[in-house]
Amino acid sequence: MLLTKLLAKAVAWLGQLFCLLTLDMECALFSHRAPQPWPRREVPYVLDTSFAPDYQRRILRAMDAIERRTCVRFRPLGAQTTFLEVRSNQEWECSSNVGIKEVGKSIMTVDTRGCAGHRILLHELLHTIGLHHMHQRNDRNDHVRVCRWSIKLYAACNFVKLFSETYGLPYDLSSIMHYGNQTFAVDKNAYTVLPLRPWQGDMGPKDDLSPGDVAWVNRVYGCRCHYLGDDLPGAMPYEEWLSATTVKHHHLAPVDASECR
Ligand SMILES: [Zn+2]
């Protein structure tokens, strides 16, 4: 038993070390993992019964913030067999599957002591509906410098370059899916992610989605009647991106324009 535990720890440690050493490479082991969006733009969910009513309201408030600006809908679980389970843990962990798992439960797990804030719940729910971290885009080195040796080893895999599909949207330092400059730093004087150009804004998670985040969700889900970010500097207009993209399997066919009121 002890040996099995030690082996599992050693494998995890080696995996994290591998992540740390390959952060900047376009590593075949990590790339091309395009998350799958939820079909019909609906996320059936069930909440852990141990959550206090106040905490349940916090989760619903974060879901509502996403629903108000996108066409993604969270629905209490009915007869569906593929759904989101929001689970409680006691290990100070806040994490989520990215996108739908094809069969069975997608898990978002939260420790109510450490994951109480609106921004953390929003961030995790965006993972659930299929968004990776902004700073894991393959083109991130054109915009930020990741300081490898300042990252806590256990978090190294959260800094690996991971995906190339940008949905025609510009790199967004203000994204709620972007880490702050000291997230997972080894100490309070260390920086893990630094913008390459002077940046006036507030980098990293905040209490709301950025316009780029809203457009990102709406492009993944084909929310043609919602904000698609066509006016963002450097964005490719949605319809142009849609007709140019050759990869169809990780975004949904758009809502018919005739449905827009
Ligand atoms: Zn995250």
From TrEMBL:
**Binding-site residues for Zn(2+), renumbered to this chain:** 123, 127, 133
Q: Where is the active site?
A: 124
The UniProt keyword set, sorted, is: Hydrolase, Metal-binding, Metalloprotease, Protease, Signal, Zinc
- SUPFAM superfamilies the record matches: Metalloproteases ('zincins'), catalytic domain (SSF55486)
Q: Which InterPro entries match?
A: MetalloPept_cat_dom_sf, Peptidase_M12A, Peptidase_Metallo
Q: Which cofactor does it need?
A: Zn(2+)
Q: Does the keyword Cell division apply?
A: no
The biological processes this protein is annotated with in GO are:
proteolysis
Q: Which residues form the signal peptide?
A: 1-22
Q: What class of enzyme is it?
A: hydrolase
Cofactor: how bound: Binds 1 zinc ion per subunit.
Q: Give the molecular function GO annotations.
A: metalloendopeptidase activity; zinc ion binding
- Pfam families noted in UniProt: Astacin
The highest taxon in the source lineage is Eukaryota
Enzyme Commission number, as recorded: 3.4.24.-
Domain Peptidase M12A: residue ranges: 27-224
Q: Cross-referenced PANTHER family, in alphabetical order?
A: DISCOIDIN, CUB, EGF, LAMININ , AND ZINC METALLOPROTEASE DOMAIN CONTAINING, METALLOENDOPEPTIDASE
Record's protein name:
Metalloendopeptidase
